[in-house]
Amino acid sequence: xxxxxxxxxxxxxxxxxxxxxxxxxxxxxxxxxxxxxxxxxxxxxxxxxxxxxxxxxxxxxxxxxxxxxxxxxxxxxxxxxxxxxxxxxxxxxxxxxxxxxxxxxxxxxxxxxxxxxxxxxxxxxxxxxxxxxxxxxxxxxxxxxxxxxxxxxxxxxxxxxxxxxxxxxxxxxxxxxxxxxxxxxxxxxxxxxxxxxxxxxxxxxxxxxxxxxxxxxxxxxxxxxxxxxxxxxxxxxxxxxxxxxxxxxxxxxxxxxxxxxxxxxxxxxxxxxxxxxxxxxxxxxxxxxxxxxxxxxxxxxxxxxxxxxxxxxxxxxxxxxxxxxxxxxxxxxxxxxxxxxxxxxxxxxxxxxxxxxxxxxxxxxxxxxxxxxxxxxxxxxxxxxxxxxxxxxxxxxxxxxxxxxxxxxxxxxxxxxxxxxxxxxxxxxxxxx
Length: 433
What we know:
By secondary structure, the protein is α/β, with parallel strands linked by helices. It has two domains: 6-330, TIM Barrel (Alpha-Beta Barrel), CATH 3.20.20.80; 346-431, Sandwich (Immunoglobulin-like). It is built from nine helices and 23 strands. It has helices at residues 54-62, 80-84, 87-104, 119-139, 153-156, 161-164, 204-214, 289-301, 322-330, and strands spanning 6-12, 31-39, 45-47, 66-72, 108-112, 144-149, 170-173, 222-227, 229-234, 243-250, 262-267, 272-277, 283-285, 306-310, 316-317, 320-321, 346-351, 358-365, 369-377, 382-391, 394-401, 412-419, 424-431.
């Protein structure tokens, strides 16, 4: 893993029974945020059932990860305003948090107050965070304080980020819920760029611009939010009007629909996929391994401190944790993903991508080569050799038909590796049955 890259994953209580903490891929996830606890109006710490277990932190720590307790979440804001407004309640609350961290091995606290909604709330949040910082440092200077933050001025106006950035270790940018039941159209949950162009509901790009340029948050303190869920609308197409309720869907529910009454579409403005029901009555907006790749590349290009996931366990399919695997390949170092030994030695293109039966692989050699084309899983596991033979200098095309393989493969993200004596390149491809 590259130094300084954070992959923060929220681990909600309601996935624990089907996705135990031991299932978290800590070769990818660096910080696990355990959700949710919250303050009541007497500064006690309330939580969902069966949240606290002394063995949880040990499992995380044994694999080198950090384990934080997240306070808040949507609908769990009842005690924040009261506690933050009182000096005595703030002290009691922080003491209670230190005791919980000490007892259950948490490495710090993640704040997710959704949301302060007045100047008074904003000032009191400053007081709470400053006093947490002081009391945590006095008890254990290694304890972290992090915060989930909105990414537009609608709620962001009530966060004094110029003050908070001095006391918060890093911010988890909620770069999702760009569209929903409140929107004028059936838009993407988390478009990387505005779709349609200039859409006032925004995108990941406008969100980072807001935090960095408008609010002055250092890039290294920001983690880009990656949603492992999507939204289903009653609409005929992307960005059209919709009716009825908007329904959240976990990622693992979505890929099996492709080819079973739904068709896969790609929005080249948003850099996101979506599905259209064959009768054009519904659409689903979501993120898949390919759009996660683009978001990871964007986070690196923008020199952000990390990425953040809502939520762990939502992407478990028959192919494993597909979106986690995409982060591992596209954000963290991959042992087999490398360019040629000489700059510009091999040009490679694969299309269509995603594909569902055959894929055209085009490449240009600058020398005659004995070349191999191999297929790997996103974890770097060898699957099959697609081609082996001599190719002359120049442009070539190889058509890979999945049905011609001697073995069955499931839908998912794969790596095509082209290797010769003087050339080496890897291309990510997404196969959808």
